[in-house]
């Protein structure tokens, strides 16, 4: 899969290409379009070559003068998607982690089907308070942001209630490495893995684990699919939001392939029990 920054660049390129194709279909030169729009003569060239990002108003005017007003709404939506796609963690976390946890609640509450893939961590919806606290403290230290971890953990625990109401379903695929990545001390990990065993018995939750020996796909970042609405991908520096249907379909395809590699039921529980036993080594 593309890196988040590359995905954003590709989306920007696609938008510029559509604008250029529209201008050419209208048999307008860049200077012609600029004159019609009342812009500086070089503005069209700057937009088409990525040296200037068009505003929503620019796109509306562009479509009007190219005789394609019916496409303006779709292109403006594409621009908004690009704006959403790449959000720097430092900006999102500048006041700590609690605000970030609260901001996600509406998305969780309107989602009826979660599909989650995590290669190295237990997902937030299945974390114990101690595991979440250890993880968030590490994030706070690394990012040098205000420490509101206790409050953020409370919000994360409250957010988990979405899985006990509204008939929501959740399919989770973990790499075996997620069971063995030490977050906190031995007691924290033992409690977390025991909790994972318990929540996996719920009828609305499907837990699959990809054994290390069966890894057949290339490594990728963890991602969450919220219905067919969007995909969130967390990286070291940013959160990528994917809303284009064809890109969501790509992540859904990857999730389906990961699901085929995973083991379930007794086999998954055996892997978790093995990880718990390894904590004493």
UniProtKB/TrEMBL annotation:
Residues covered by the HTH cro/C1-type domain: 19-55
Q: Which organism is it from?
A: Streptosporangium fragile
Identify one Pfam family in the record.
DUF5753
Q: Which PROSITE patterns match?
A: HTH_CROC1
Gene3D superfamilies named among the record's database cross-references: lambda repressor-like DNA-binding domains
Give the highest taxon in the source lineage.
Answer: Bacteria
Upper classification of the source organism reads: Bacteria, Bacillati, Actinomycetota, Actinomycetes, Streptosporangiales
Stated name of the protein: Helix-turn-helix transcriptional regulator
């Amino acid at each position: 899969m593309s890196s988040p920054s590359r995905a954003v660049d590709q989306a920007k390129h696609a938008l510029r290409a559509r604008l250029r194709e529209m201008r050419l279909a209208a048999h307008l030169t860049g200077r012609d379009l600029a004159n019609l729009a009342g812009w500086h003569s070089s503005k069209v060239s700057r937009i088409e070559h990525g040296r200037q990002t068009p505003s929503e108003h620019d796109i509306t005017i562009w479509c009007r003068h190219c005789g394609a007003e019916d496409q303006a709404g779709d292109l403006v939506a594409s621009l908004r998607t690009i704006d959403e796609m790449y959000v720097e963690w430092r900006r999102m976390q500048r006041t700590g982690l609690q605000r970030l946890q609260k901001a996600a609640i509406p998305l969780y509450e309107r989602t009826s089907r979660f599909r989650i893939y995590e290669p190295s961590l237990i997902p937030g919806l299945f974390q114990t308070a101690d595991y979440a606290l250890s993880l968030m403290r590490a994030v706070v230290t690394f990012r040098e942001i205000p420490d509101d971890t206790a409050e953020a953990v409370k919000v994360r625990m409250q957010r988990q209630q979405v899985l006990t109401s509204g008939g929501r379903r959740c399919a989770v695929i973990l790499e075996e490495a997620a069971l063995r990545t030490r977050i906190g001390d031995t007691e924290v990990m033992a409690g977390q893995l025991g909790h994972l065993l318990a929540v996996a018995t719920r009828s609305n939750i499907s837990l699959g684990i990809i054994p290390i020996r069966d890894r057949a796909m290339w490594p990728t970042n963890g991602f969450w699919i919220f219905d067919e609405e969007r995909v969130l991908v967390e990286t070291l520096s940013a959160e990528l939001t994917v809303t284009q249907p064809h890109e969501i379909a790509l992540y859904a395809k990857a999730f389906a392939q990961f699901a085929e590699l995973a083991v379930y039921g007794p086999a998954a529980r055996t892997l978790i029990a093995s990880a718990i036993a390894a904590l004493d080594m």
